[in-house]
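ok so for the tutorial part 2 we go from a plain amino acid sequence to predicted structure tokens. step 1 is just haveing the sequence, like this:
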Amino acid sequence: MINPRFRSLMELLSEVELVYQFMVFATPETAVGLFPDVGASYFLSRLPGFFGEYLGLTGARLDSAEMLACCLATHFVPSWLGTINKCFSHGTVEEILSSLEIEAAKKNEDWISVAIKSLKKASPIN
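step 2 — the prediction. this is what the tokens look like for a chain of 126 residues:
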């Protein structure tokens, strides 16, 4: 298993940096008087304007949208993509609908109920 901080550094040094919906970027070591470590000075110095200095000195936290906006990430992967792949991998609309209904019972996520309503409204099975 790779240390999450080291993994984050590896991702930031690659050509494609993925962020997920609930991912947060932070340099918490600055709160205790230390400088950003694990190679953070390398990628912070390459951010637009003086945004790297801001992050490195303040320890500000960024959500995934802010990470995209300041070039710390190149692509956004929604947290619900796995559920979509799981539910829509079935062979029939009935199985897809059933799978979505099972997920809706487990998770309180608006997009699932919207998908169910859309399928029921537009599907030839109804």
